[in-house]
Write a sequence for this structure.
């Protein structure tokens, strides 16, 4: 029997190549999307699960209140919490602080290589499952110059030799010094929040000015390992008691100084929750992620597969007239309805199976691109685990049911008498099939509107007037020797301007300033030289910029937002402001500009001038027509002055674009999803139109005989489908309007969506749908009516 | 007296659309004995095919009784009807109704598959019947590679492969030329002589003469019965 079914299925697939192709293509793309997202979600939820002690590991986090009363969640702690809490709270068996250090320079022969580094207590090897393949947990990270590297790094620097005991020259803070490798750890799994290739003792990362009883500087992550069985709520309570005992006095002082609203409350965050948690990561931890992303991606993938399933259902139902005879014959010859259901479900299973094999190929081909988009390092090899196999098998079964069940029920229910005497009429209106088409296009149009809005918002963010001119400016990081670099470089004609700043002005620190008794809490603070404002074309509205008078660091400029926040009605010139004990005089007012990205509002800003040698970041404005020469000159002059550190430079415009990386990636993901959805929907529309036209051949013949023109007939045929697309547009537009406005609300600077977005997405969908079916319609309208009528 | 194989009493069947109700069978009563060869004749729309479909349990009547081999089947569920049908009744159609995707052999094998006959037994029985119908040499051909006469032989082979007690033939020669038509009628006569009951709907007086009895229908009622001598 199975052989008989299989044969009938294969021959049917072969004889209806267009139909088979549409189904397999759609389903394989849909399945590939779902598999990709499954891998993504699997990776997300499996983060850190490899740690044997995982359930007992927590991160110390804070829920606090800022002076202005706003509530914040903070994943960082200082150096003191781990030590003190372990001493005072018996349930805490061990603690480990983890801090990030960006990258360091490592010598390998004559090469200098930049490597990422993190710092940790040596308990890292006790708490976490990071096995040492060489060296002992007790004998690593004891001395300031101890170093642990991973297997991969050991191989990179020492080949197959045992790296333990060997020395690497590393430049951590300005000069190279020797570090002894005391351990080699197994490569850290890529789905680990704590992730390292070079690891140094935590002490080296604590700031020199840091005092060991400082409870209010937060810059690293503290993990605690709690005795199994202990209640974390109990530990939390005790932590806050200890904190209030030890830091209560200081907290009271801060309250007096900054306002009574300040509050600090310690909490424990389960290690397994860190990756998708609300406290965020940073300072040595891999970037965390939002659960929302998994949900959105999962939803999109499910929608795409659903669209493909709708194609299957609709095409199978439309083709059912052709198969009606077979169904009738089988019934007359003794087949029960159940047997026919099994047969048709089998066919949908077979098609899904073929599609799933193709989907694996698509998946493997798209994985690198997807990794890039999703910031992941997923491997095709993950598919070979038994969990993936089960998920895949389940997916095939679910898809078989989703696409095959309804058609199987309908087809198996055909009355044999009607099928055999050609009297079978599929429900003339076919509302079900039509609603499915509408659903497909609702999804497609929704995504299309999303694409247009995101594209527009992205372009707006990237191309908006920032209040300064970032074009043709190269941002060079310079460890030292700013004055020499500036004077050496100035002699080239293609170098237009050079200015120095303490740190890139695009990532400024917020600080507290006082104006009279007003406290301006989140005020940005820039340290730049006298050329800065001019080079970036930031207009000074009142007073003047800095003259070349390096030394007087008590004169500052403020921006319009500062003046507004300070409540100054009159000229700000000569006004006094305070930062801690330091007092400044305002000598100028600059126009507001976006020092940070447009993802943030413009904050009050104070600009000061420092002595020249302190500048570590140089902005070089070059002649856009001689870019190559200019870059070469910058590299040459840099090398002359700084031998031990490779040059790092970027165009300012690229750095700015990086800040919109996230919206850029989402823009791409939604665009791709929209293109796929529209493509699969149109495939279905094409198939449906073809089949529907076949069934209306006689009607077309009669119409032609009665005098209808080709245009008349084409219009009648096309209107049938375009009507559905139109209904979909009407449904999708308000939904998309609402959701995209919600999405835009997260941006302080955003586009106005405008009715034309909806109209253009709708028109686009209609045009694409038109193009999809116009060929079949016109072909049918051109056919000789004698043929179709004679065959009756 | 032997009980009839088929006994229908006051059978009624209506076709309704929103505006019209058509009476296809109007209080029709007929009996057919085991081993009989009955022809049903009448003009288009007189209810011949409707009757045949009800007799074949492909359709159910709206009113009246249908007793098949002593069992009242008029209001059987679809499943029960399918079960009774596959063990007792073979069908032959004017348009042959072979599955285009299956070979001659596979088409004939179909009823055996649905009655759960084991594979080896199936091969034996299909070959037997193909041999009898003189179509063995075409066993691996597909329906569209055969002439009309050959296709109808395959259809008859399929109808008899399960050794049904009753064969229902709906204008079995309607799509054939006279020579092929005669061959088919000979085949049916042979089957009847071997004990199979046959009920045949036909327009052809010539074909009807092969039967024992002609029932003439008009507007869903029996108008006359001719006993053939």
């Amino acid at each position: 029997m199975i052989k008989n079914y299989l044969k009938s299925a294969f021959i049917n697939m072969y004889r209806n190549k267009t139909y088979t192709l549409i189904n397999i293509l759609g389903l394989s793309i849909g399945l590939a999307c779902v598999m990709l997202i499954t891998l993504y979600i699997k990776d997300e939820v499996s983060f850190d699960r490899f740690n044997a002690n995982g359930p007992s590991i927590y991160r110390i986090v804070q829920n606090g209140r800022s002076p202005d009363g706003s509530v914040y969640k903070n994943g960082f702690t200082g150096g003191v919490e781990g030590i003190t809490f372990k001493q005072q709270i018996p349930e805490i068996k061990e603690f480990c602080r983890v801090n990030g250090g960006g990258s360091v320079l490592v010598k390998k022969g004559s090469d200098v290589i930049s490597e990422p580094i993190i710092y940790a207590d040596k308990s890292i090897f006790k708490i976490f499952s990071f096995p040492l393949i060489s060296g002992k947990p007790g004998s690593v990270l004891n001395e300031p110059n101890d170093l642990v590297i991973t297997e991969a790094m050991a191989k990179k620097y020492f080949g197959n030799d045992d790296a333990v005991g060997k020395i690497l020259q590393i430049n951590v803070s300005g000069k190279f010094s020797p570090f002894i490798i005391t351990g080699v750890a197994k490569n850290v799994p890529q789905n680990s929040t704590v992730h390292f290739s070079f690891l140094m003792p935590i002490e080296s990362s604590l700031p020199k000015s840091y005092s060991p009883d400082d409870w209010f500087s937060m810059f690293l992550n503290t993990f605690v390992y709690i005795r199994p069985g202990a209640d974390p709520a109990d530990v939390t309570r005790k932590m806050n008691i200890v904190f209030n005992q030890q830091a209560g006095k200081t907290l009271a002082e801060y309250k007096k100084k900054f306002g009574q609203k300040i509050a600090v409350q310690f909490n424990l965050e389960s290690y397994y929750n860190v990756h998708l948690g609300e406290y965020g990561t940073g300072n040595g931890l891999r970037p965390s992620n939002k659960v929302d992303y998994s949900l959105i991606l999962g939803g999109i993938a499910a929608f795409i597969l659903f669209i493909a399933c709708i194609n299957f259902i609709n095409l199978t139902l439309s083709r059912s007239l052709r198969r009606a005879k077979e169904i009738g014959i089988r019934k007359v010859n003794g087949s029960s309805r159940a047997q026919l259901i099994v047969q048709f479900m089998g066919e949908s299973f077979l098609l899904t199976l073929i599609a799933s094999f193709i989907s694996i190929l698509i998946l493997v081909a798209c994985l690198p691109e997807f990794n890039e988009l999703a910031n992941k390092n997923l491997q095709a090899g993950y598919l070979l685990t038994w969990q993936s196999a089960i998920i895949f098998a389940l997916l095939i079964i679910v898809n078989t049911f989703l696409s095959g069940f309804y058609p199987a029920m309908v087809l198996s229910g055909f009355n044999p008498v009607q099928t055999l005497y050609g009297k079978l009429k599929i429900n003339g209106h076919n509302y079900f099939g039509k609603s499915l088409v509408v659903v497909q296009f609702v999804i497609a149009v929704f995504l299309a509107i999303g694409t247009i809005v995101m594209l527009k918002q992205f372009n707006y963010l990237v191309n908006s007037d920032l209040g300064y001119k970032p074009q043709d400016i190269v941002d060079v990081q310079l460890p030292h020797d700013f004055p020499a670099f500036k004077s050496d470089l100035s002699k080239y004609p293609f170098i237009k301007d050079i200015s120095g700043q303490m740190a890139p002005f695009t990532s400024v620190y917020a600080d507290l300033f006082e104006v009279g008794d007003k406290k301006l809490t989140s005020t940005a603070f820039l340290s730049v030289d006298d050329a800065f404002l001019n080079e970036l074309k930031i207009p000074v509205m009142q007073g003047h910029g800095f003259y070349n008078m390096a030394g007087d660091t008590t004169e500052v400029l403020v921006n319009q937002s500062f003046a507004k926040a300070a409540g100054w009605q009159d000229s700000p010139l000569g006004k006094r402001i305070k930062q801690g004990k330091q007092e400044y005089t305002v000598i100028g007012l600059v126009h507001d500009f976006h020092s940070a990205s447009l993802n943030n509002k413009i904050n009050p800003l104070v600009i000061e001038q420092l002595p020249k040698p302190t500048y570590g970041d140089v902005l070089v404005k070059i002649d856009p027509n001689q870019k190559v020469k200019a870059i070469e000159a910058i590299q040459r002059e840099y090398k002359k002055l700084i031998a031990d550190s490779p040059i790092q430079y970027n165009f300012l415009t690229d750095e700015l674009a990086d800040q919109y990386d996230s919206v850029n990636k989402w823009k791409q993901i939604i665009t791709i999803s929209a293109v796929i959805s529209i493509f699969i929907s149109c495939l279905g529309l094409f198939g449906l139109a073809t089949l529907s036209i076949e069934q209306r051949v006689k009607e077309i013949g009669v119409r032609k005989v009665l005098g209808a023109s080709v245009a008349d007939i084409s219009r009648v045929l096309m209107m049938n489908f375009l009507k559905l697309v139109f209904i979909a547009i009407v449904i999708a537009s308000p939904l998309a309007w609402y959701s995209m406005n919600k999405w835009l609300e997260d941006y302080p600077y955003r586009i106005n969506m405008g009715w034309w977005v909806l109209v253009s997405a709708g028109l686009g969908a209609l045009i694409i749908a038109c193009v999809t079916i116009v060929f079949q319609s016109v072909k049918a309208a051109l056919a000789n009516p004698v043929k179709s009528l004679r065959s009756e | 007296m032997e009980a009839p194989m088929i006994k229908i009493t006051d059978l009624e069947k209506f076709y309704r659309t929103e505006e019209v109700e058509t009476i296809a069978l109007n209080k029709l009563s007929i009996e057919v004995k085991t081993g009989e060869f009955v022809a049903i004749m009448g003009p288009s729309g007189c209810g011949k095919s409707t009757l045949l479909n009800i007799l074949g349990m492909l359709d159910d009547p709206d009113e009246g009784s249908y007793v098949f081999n002593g069992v009242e089947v008029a209001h059987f569920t679809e499943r029960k009807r399918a079960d009774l049908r596959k063990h007792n009744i073979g069908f032959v159609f004017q348009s042959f109704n072979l599955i285009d995707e299956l070979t001659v052999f596979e088409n004939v094998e179909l009823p055996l598959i649905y009655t759960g006959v084991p594979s080896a037994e199936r091969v034996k029985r299909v070959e037997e019947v193909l041999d009898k119908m003189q179509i063995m040499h075409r066993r691996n051909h597909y329906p569209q590679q055969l002439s009309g006469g050959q296709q109808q032989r395959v259809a008859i082979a399929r109808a008899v492969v399960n050794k049904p007690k009753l064969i229902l033939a709906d204008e079995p020669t309607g799509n054939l030329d006279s020579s092929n038509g005669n061959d088919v009628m000979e085949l049916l006569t042979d089957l009847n002589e071997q004990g199979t009951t046959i009920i045949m709907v036909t327009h052809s007086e010539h074909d009807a003469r092969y039967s024992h009895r002609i029932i003439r229908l008009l507007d869903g009622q029996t108008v006359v019965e001719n006993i053939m001598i």
Notes: The first strand of chain B starts at residue 6 and ends at 16. Chain B has a mean pLDDT of 88.
